[in-house]
Amino acid sequence: MLTGLSFVTIAEICGVVGIAAVLRGLTGFGFALAAVPLLSLVIPPAQAVVIAVLLQCLVGVRDLISLRGQFDRGELGRMGLGALIGTPPGILLLGWLDPDVMRVVIAAIIGLAIPMLALPPKPRGAGALRLAFPAGLTGGFFGGLAAMPGPPAITYFLYTGAVAARMRASLMIFVAITAAIALPGLAVAGLLHGSDLVAALCAFPVMLGGTWLGGRLFALTSEKRYRLVSLSVLLATALSAGARGLSAML
């Protein structure tokens, strides 16, 4: 046993993180959407969220350095301010929900994300920047609830017509911002434990490797193809998490 988690569980966590990290490196937004539902199959959903948040904080430090100049600071500043307000209610709901209900909620969030990701980019509209704050607000709530701030942010960037490389970089930084906001709240709520930190530290090298591999695939893959891969993986994880939650509730 390792601070409450067996070595088998740690290995399972690392395996899930590796798969989700490839998706993250490929798309910029898929880590928690894939990792949290799969992790919730082997550990409690709230713990899965905490580990995902820790990993996103750790990798976010590297992303801020490696992706500098590839994202709009003013845009992300507005989104970050919204996330600062929206994250605490999400954390409160996370601590209140039953684990099986949480699995269904996670599946529902992904279900909402899938049609959003299928939308084609639209030309930047006048005043589109005003939508950055509400997108961050909603993304913060999703981030606090399930470490999944991506769907509202994805919708925003698709609406503004961001090119794939800029959208990918901006999403990576926004996810890191929401994770940094959520982490103190998770600690205050009593949801952060030593075993979560150990699991995150063990899985972090795997996350870096998976993100690197996903980045290589991003450079070689067309936008249409990497969106198709993302949608397929997200649909599979939503179905698995939702089915487990519903079966326990019925």
The value of Rg in angstroms is 17 Å
User: What's the helical proportion of residues?
Assistant: over 70%
- H/E order of the elements? HHHHHHHHHH
Globally, the shape reads globular
Q: How would you classify the quaternary structure?
A: single chain
Strand content: under 5%
Low-pLDDT runs: none
From the N-terminal CA to the C-terminal CA, the straight-line distance is 33 Å
Q: Strand pairing plus helix content: what structural class?
A: mainly alpha
The count of helical stretches stands at 10
Summarize the structure.
This protein is mainly α and 250 residues long. 80% of the residues lie in helices and 0% in strands.
Walkthrough of the structure:
This protein is an all-alpha fold and 250 residues long. The protein contains 10 helices and no strands. Helix 1 runs antiparallel to helix 2 (31-39) and helix 3 packs across helix 8. It is globular and about 45 Å long.
Question: How is this fold's topology laid out?
Answer:
Blueprint: H1 7-27, H2 31-39, H3 45-66, H4 73-96, H5 99-118, H6 132-146, H7 150-159, H8 164-188, H9 194-220, H10 223-249
List keywords for this structure.
250 residues; mainly alpha; 10 helices; 80% helix
